[in-house]
Write a structure and sequence with these properties.
72 residues; mainly alpha; elongated
Amino acid sequence: MSKPQPESRGRLSRRTLFAGAGTAGALAAAASLLPAAPDTTEPEAAARPTPERGGGYTLSDHVQQYYKTTRI
């Protein structure tokens, strides 16, 4: 009987490749069977009337947060 050849560290064996592909497929199948997460988004805020002279910029909360992050 001949000695088995040692595997090189930089190459994937066929067994490892197929094991990884099988694991990925099993995870994808399991994820498709999980129930969907409930929709936690809040309903849209009431629409504001359109300004008469154009514009319409409002300083919203997320814009204020951005401005706070840009201060030095």
